[in-house]
Design goal:
449 residues; single chain; 22 helices; globular; 0% strand; mainly alpha
Length: 449
């Protein structure tokens, strides 16, 4: 690596450290992430010709602009998807759409609730995606659990279960989608061989976390969260729910049919739901002081957590700079050289790294660096590619900012990086290792090739 590359990596590491100690510095993580983004790309601008062919003289600014716009376009699709999903879920929640789902999960025993939340999150994340599922489950948790101390434990489990559920599904996690679309894993292969390891990676942490929950939830935990000012009928509330959640389920189908990015499908669902709820409230003709305006999309858009959105922007663009200078590819190449032939160690370490930096460029780097073989561990549905899907997905649970699910839960529940690292990281790591061990046993006994 050149001196300039080392400086860029150092800036990223310093910024990451400041994000990690946010509770000490009292500086919002979004501010640090934006500074990381700007400083990394400003340093990159000093000599882009080193990394971009043709970036010399007057063409330098144009070349850098094109590279940044390409990365920004990719980042923007994630941000629009996030904003659309958050708005849809908030709209369903505000209009009582989750009431009957909450009733299905409702129990006064803390441990029973934990297991119900764990399995529902795991299943939903395979059908929807881990990001959308996390938003839905946090909204439901707010209705069920009043104690913030207990809710943090449930929210942490949501992150773990969402990432585990997304790892075995070809549409559940963006990295699995990448591998599936590239033809490196098949839908049947990844479901058949990764399902049990993913399930174990959720069950083990859930059991450990259940040991810290004792007793029963107070009756007030349910009654105080009821919506007493909802003017929609039961039929209208269920219509909102099925349009919202059913629309989210439809997004992968829409992508398959149209080949358009997922955020387009999210915006389609938002537009339909927006129109329907406007019709509902227009027919009710409620004055503003009765809450008629408060539950409309125009009002909810103003309440989007822009701090989380800007944090996402800063982190993803800073990581994009590391990808552009080749730092991530160099890291992957170094791992391959150091642990030559041991796919369990290589993918295991990549999984740990995916909790530190975004797993998308890591997986993208691996896809470009490692050739697909006709047979063996590097073939389609081979050990390397299936383990990469598992490790990149589940490994993100080890840090709160290691996955999209973690970042959005962090923003919604105001979970600090330090609390998660102290209380949850080791638990997620134990589940992560347990899943790898189960996969090894599966391959050795049932799928030996």
């Amino acid at each position: 690596m050149t001196t300039l590359s080392i400086i860029i990596v150092a800036v990223f590491c310093i910024g990451y450290l400041l994000i990690a100690i946010e509770s000490v510095t009292k500086i919002n993580k979004a501010a640090i992430a934006l500074l990381m983004f700007v400083f990394c790309w400003t340093l990159f601008m000093i000599d882009p010709g080193e990394y971009i062919s043709g970036a010399v003289g007057d063409m330098k600014a144009l070349a850098v602009s094109e590279v940044m716009e390409r990365h920004l376009g990719s980042t923007a699709t994630t941000l629009f998807f996030l904003m659309g999903a958050m708005t849809i879920v908030e709209l369903v929640d505000q209009n009582g759409g989750f009431n009957f789902v909450r009733d299905m999960l409702k129990t006064r025993t803390k441990r029973k609730l934990l297991w119900r939340i764990a399995f529902m999150t795991f299943i939903l994340s395979a059908v929807l995606d881990n990001l959308t599922t996390s938003i839905v489950m946090v909204m439901i948790l707010r209705k069920l659990v009043e104690s913030r101390k207990d809710r943090l434990i449930y929210a942490a489990l949501v992150v773990i279960a969402a990432n585990s559920g997304g790892a075995f599904s070809p549409i559940g996690d963006v990295t699995t989608i990448m591998l599936w679309n590239k033809g490196l894993v098949t839908a049947a292969g990844v479901i058949m061989e990764i399902f049990i390891p993913s399930l174990v990676s959720m069950i083990v942490p859930a059991y450990i976390l259940s040991l810290s929950l004792n007793g029963k939830l107070e009756v007030s935990d349910f009654s105080q969260n009821e919506r007493v000012d909802n003017h929609l009928t039961e039929v209208q509330r269920k219509t909102v729910f099925f349009l919202g959640v059913g629309g989210l389920v439809f997004v992968p189908v829409f992508k398959t049919i149209t080949h358009l990015p997922p955020f387009v499908g999210i915006l389609l669902v938002l537009g339909i739901l927006w129109t329907i709820t406007e019709i509902f409230y227009a027919n009710l003709a409620l004055p503003e002081e009765h809450g008629g305006m408060q539950k409309r999309v125009t009002n909810m858009l103003s309440r989007i957590d822009m701090g989380t959105i800007l944090f996402f922007l800063g982190i993803l663009m800073a990581v994009a700079c590391l990808e552009t200078i080749g730092a991530l590819e160099l890291l992957g190449d170094g791992l391959n050289t150091t642990f030559n032939g041991n796919h369990y160690l290589v993918t295991g370490i990549i999984g740990v790294l995916s909790s530190i930096v975004d797993n998308v460029p890591l997986v993208a780097g691996c896809m470009g660096m490692y050739p697909v073989a006709a047979t063996g561990d590097m073939a389609v549905d081979g050990i390397f590619w299936q383990l990469l899907a598992y490790c990149a997905g589940v490994g993100g649970s080890m840090l709160i900012i290691g996955s999209a699910a973690g970042v959005v839960v962090m923003g919604l529940e105001k979970i600090s990086f330090g609390w998660y690292m102290k209380k949850i990281t080791w638990i997620a790591f134990v589940g992560y290792l347990a899943g790898i061990l189960i996969y090894w046993a599966e391959r050795s006994i049932f799928f030996n090739s």
